[in-house]
Design brief:
It is a single chain. The chain is α/β, with parallel strands linked by helices. The protein is built from 10 helices and 13 strands. Strands 7-6-5-8-9-13-12 form a 7-stranded mixed beta sheet, sandwiched between helices. Strands 1-2 form a two-stranded antiparallel sheet. Strands 3-4 form a two-stranded antiparallel sheet. Helix 2 runs parallel beside helix 4 and helix 2 runs parallel beside helix 5. The chain is globular. The chain starts with a strand and ends with a strand. The N terminus is likely disordered. Bound molecules: S-adenosylmethionine (SAM). The site of S-adenosylmethionine (SAM) has 24 residues, from helix 1, strand 6 and helix 6.
């Protein structure tokens, strides 16, 4: 069953369809429930990121001036954030002159994003939906981005081809997610049990992950599988940025799966920058 809605304010306010809860794939329904539950915990951090002039990325907040993840020429570009959450990455894009659209699977995360749009006076379309099936025509965007959105919570074998479909030839996709090595070194995602200095789990077979005592579903791939998937979907790989925690990083209870001491030695996060072949 599909319902029809208005996709949001501004340029792209055409009617779009999105599936009812009972039609969502199991992992998407589980993640909607989980993110609606977690949304209140992300309001404060979201507000800080909306207020920040300079983007800073990931759990350690590494500044954009050090990582250079965004393209230089965003002005006038059509952009989509896949799993936009509270929407701060799209706000950074809008401040750089791009025309962002945010899609997210959680109604409550989108409520927060709408609150911040009013608070900060930056409006762009926000769409409730699954980044694996985005209701926009082929080649609608110049830039697609996901910081721990679809990049972590959507099935890469669905959302990567979808991102390729949405981008124009020459368009760029940037996504940031947990580092591969860290995934291999985390035994269980529970407090006081952060990544070890010894491998804890196999690389082969790495794909869908449900942590103990959790209902949400994450996706992780070995680098070889990412490369095959990205190239097969029509992307050329430009950069794989292995992110190091800054010297002043402090441990956060929310991210208890890794310590600064670990992340000063190995990449706890990684960003991929890929371009759709012309
Ligand atoms: C950690 S937030 C990332 C967004 C943003 N960087 C932030 O921190 O607010 C993860 C977001 O991904 C969204 N998400 C999970 N699965 C999704 C899917 N299949 N399609 C679209 N959004 C999804 C969740 O609803 C959540 O808002």
């Amino acid at each position: 069953m599909a319902r029809t809605c208005r996709s949001g304010a501004g340029r792209r306010s055409e009617a779009v369809s999105f599936p009812a809860m009972e039609d969502l794939p199991e992992h998407v329904a589980a993640n909607r429930e989980a993110w609606d539950r977690m949304a209140p915990d992300y309001v404060e951090g979201g507000r800080r990121s909306w207020a920040a002039d300079e983007p800073s990325w990931g759990i350690w907040g590494v500044p954009e001036r050090e990582l250079h993840l965004f393209p230089d020429d965003l002005a006038g570009k059509d952009a989509i954030e896949l799993g936009c959450g509270t929407g701060y990455v799209s706000a950074w894009l809008a401040r750089r002159g791009a025309k962002p659209v945010g899609i997210d699977n959680s109604p409550r995360q989108l409520e927060t994003a709408r609150t911040f749009q009013r608070e900060f006076g930056i409006e762009f379309p926000l769409l409730l939906g699954n980044a694996e099936h985005v209701p926009y025509p082929d080649a609608s965007f110049d830039f697609a981005v996901s910081e721990y959105g679809a990049a972590l919570w959507a099935d890469p074998y669905a959302w990567i081809p979808e991102a390729a479909r949405l981008l124009r030839p020459g368009g760029q996709l940037l996504f940031l997610t947990n580092g591969l090595l860290m995934q291999l070194c985390v035994e269980e995602l529970i407090a006081n049990d952060p990544a070890k200095n010894v491998l804890q789990r196999p690389l082969f077979g790495m794909y869908r992950t449900v942590w103990p005592n959790d209902t949400s579903v994450e996706f992780h791939l070995p680098h070889g599988a990412w490369i095959d998937l990205l190239r097969g979907a029509g992307f050329e790989i430009e950069r794989l940025v292995e992110i190091k925690a800054p010297p002043d990083a402090v441990a956060s209870p929310r991210f208890s799966f890794v310590t600064p001491a670990w992340a000063w030695q190995w990449p706890s996060e990684e960003a991929w920058i890929v371009r759709k072949r012309t």
